[in-house]
Specification:
The chain is of the alpha/beta class. α1 runs parallel beside α9, α2 crosses α3 and α4 crosses α5. β9, α5 and β10 form a beta-alpha-beta unit. The N terminus is likely disordered. The chain has a single domain, classed as Alpha-Beta Barrel (TIM Barrel), CATH 3.20.20.100. The chain is built from ten helices and twelve strands. The chain has an eight-stranded parallel beta barrel, surrounded by six helices. A two-stranded antiparallel ribbon has the order 1-2. Pfam families: Aldo_ket_red.
Length: 342
């Protein structure tokens, strides 16, 4: 089943350049409303860190303060998911901010992952689960429609086209304006997009992991879908705050990622050291350079950036697309680190 012929509401991608007008869909009349902004920010606040699953010590007050600070700084797009938090914490924390000015904000949701009562992650791409979880997530958020609804990850037991059909069915019902998919290979994206035309995508992209640039991002962009990249700071490693001697607290899942181990971690620190030097020259922090590099790549719409505390989002939201010469210097830094491996 394709969604060709579905009469969609007009929706302009939120971060398209070079206009200085941020366009947001009016849910009251189906037309576009325009809000002026001094500078388009290619940043979406990702709510995974404040949901408190992989990061420790996040209080509700800190989470709310982080979102409030992001809004004050001009960020009006948020990335949430049914599984962000064991009981939908990210949806619930975001809800009060949407209550009185829904048209101001863009909400990207994801379904297809959930938690068991024993807090074990389950991937379920069945139509029944995708539908039920999307409906519950909307109730948690207190809204009637997502701007973008994504399949969180493919279910190995179910054809991805079947999951795509379920997402498109939700679109037909008006529960989302656009569809998308996350955590897929290029071939899986092609299968999903054969059903959900113009699908958006979320994929990893950072200075340490650039595979998405070869095929996945160009394919999605050529199909007309928005491209949102995550792990731009590789869970803090490219923020310039984690030292070589740093050890993670018990329960912090970052310790299990290969990039935080052995030679891969040392390579990352070598890159960060040189980014610090470059940053002093161009008046940018390491985090701003890393995010700026990611959003400067062809086809990238915006970066999903997480934060646990207000001061973190103050720094990262200042990231902008980089001048070509700075991006080239960063590419040279990475290439040099690669040539010195081993």
């Amino acid at each position: 089943m394709s969604n060709e012929g579905v009469r969609e509401k007009s929706f302009t991608p939120f971060f398209r350049r070079p206009s200085l007008l941020v366009t947001c869909l009016s849910r009251h009349n189906g037309h576009m409303s325009e809000q002026k902004t001094s500078e388009q920010q290619p940043i979406v606040l990702g709510l995974w860190p404040i949901a408190g699953v992989t990061t420790l010590g996040v209080t509700q007050a800190e989470a709310q303060a982080t979102i409030a600070t992001a809004i004050d700084l001009g960020i009006t797009a948020f990335d949430t998911a049914f599984s962000y938090g064991y009981d939908g914490e990210s949806d619930k924390i975001l809800k009060p901010f949407l209550a009185h000015d829904r048209d101001r904000f863009v909400v990207i949701g994801k379904v297809g992952q959930r938690w068991t009562p024993k807090r074990e992650r389950v991937v379920d791409g069945s139509a029944k689960t995708l539908t039920a979880d999307a409906e519950l997530s909307l109730r948690r958020l207190g809204i009637d429609s997502f701007d973008v609804l994504m399949l969180h990850s493919p279910d190995p037991q179910i054809a991805i086209e079947t999951s795509a059909e379920a997402i498109v069915a939700l679109q037909r019902r008006g529960l989302c304006q656009r569809t998308g998919v996350s955590n897929v290979t290029p071939s899986q994206f092609a299968q999903f997009a054969s059903v959900a035309r113009g699908a958006a995508i979320e994929c990893p992209l950072n200075l340490l992991q650039q595979d998405s640039l070869a095929e996945l991002i160009p394919e999605s962009h050529s199909e007309g879908g928005d491209v949102y990249v995550f792990w731009t700071l590789m869970k803090g490693l490219l923020a310039g705050k984690i030292t070589r001697e740093h050890t993670f607290a018990p329960g912090d899942s970052r310790a299990n990622y290969p990039v935080f181990q052995g030679a891969a971690r040392q390579r990352a620190h070598a890159i960060v050291d040189r980014l610090e030097t470059l940053g002093k020259q161009v008046k940018r922090t390491v985090a701003q350079l890393a995010i700026g590099w990611a959003v400067s790549q062809p086809g990238v719409t915006a970066a999903l950036v997480g934060a646990r505390r207000p001061e973190q989002i103050r720094e990262t939201c200042a990231a902008t697309r980089l001048p070509a010469e700075i991006a080239a210097q960063i590419n040279e830094i990475v290439a040099t680190a690669d040539s010195q491996k081993g």
